[in-house]
User: Fold this.
Amino acid sequence: MKTKKALAAVLGMTMLSGSFVVSAPAEVKAADKKLVFWDKSEYVAAYNEMMKAKLDEFAEANGVEVEYVIVPSGDIKQKLAAAIESGNQPDLIMGDNTLVAEYINSDQLAEVDDVLENIDFKENALRYATFNDKNYLVPLSFTAPGMYLRKDKWEEKGLDMPTTWEELKEDAKKINDPENGFYALGLPLGASGGGDAESFVRTVILDFGGRLVDENGKVVVNSPETLAAMEYIASLYEEGLCPPDATTWDDSANNSAWMAGTVGMVCNSGSIISSMEQENPDLLANTQIIQYPAVSADDTSYTLGGANVFGIFETGANTDVAKEFVSYYFSDTDYYNQMVEAMGAMWQPVVNGYDDTDFWNAEDHIGWLKNSENLVLTTYPAPTTGEAATSFTNQACVKAMQQIVVNGVDPQEALDSLEQSLIELYGE
Assistant:
């Protein structure tokens, strides 16, 4: 079987300066083509092993010498900057879309229309390919966050899993127990530079029908729908359903609160699953991942999140070989699906045809899949531009919410301030 043969080809890895460098297979030492691929180290070791196996298979089939470098996620930005400065950038990288997209503005990445046109991507996956109306990124997997609920707390009160935001709030009132140090909702609202809080606020705004910036780049945030969303969010904190210090939480604080068992709901990536598997399997058994709520059964539920993507360096020495490998990788869709499933639902598929499987229909996984189906960029529906990215990293929405929750500012006044901050960024 091709997959087993490929997996058997995985070579040993040697630590080098915080990275793992895997040398080319002996049988292709005389190859006249080369591919240097920098990949991020994943929580699940099987991913890197399987990617290396596919790379070796490609090398053998096409007479290509390969160098596979596995870089810790926290180091890849610094190492890439140094490599680019010295003119030794790789041909191909894989990382999260926000990281890889940084190299578009510096004219490092090649356009990839010729790769994309031969792959059956889901429609929302292609949003992660585009920057300034051109395609530079090849999606590998969705990384949709999940809404984690303490199903034992819901069951104790005889409650069904919530499907609307109002149901979530009413359920939260029933399970909230601050006198005993337990809060129903672990929602961060700290302006610390992280993305969890900004994603949550923007999700609720979208679900309520509001938009920050429309598809034409025009600021449209000041609407009754956005105001209603902000008032709803504020009520969760004002009514004591979130820990009092949640207004200062960074991206790690909700993880910590969940692992400590002090909150009944968080929105987070699959990293918490890995932590529970290793540290608290009893908590994992009492955890339910659900689809994000909507305003009503007839409304769309949005999930803001990211994707892992390939970036092909136009300034690399072997751009064409990098494109050949990415196309080769996606040609084996069975292998692709095995790789995604090996991540244990932390990743979701970006190609069509692999949703209706035993794996994705399982209770523990279906919530992740449903969230990925409604996944949109954090700046949606605005075009993916530098201004859009800055509005997110500046946490414009979180800062507006803090005015209401922390400083007691009238919601409409806070919304006016949010509008002005976006106009200063985007222009009239």
Notes: The chain has two domains: 2-144+307-369, 146-304+394-426. The chain is about 45% helix and 15% strand. The first strand starts at residue 14 and ends at 16.
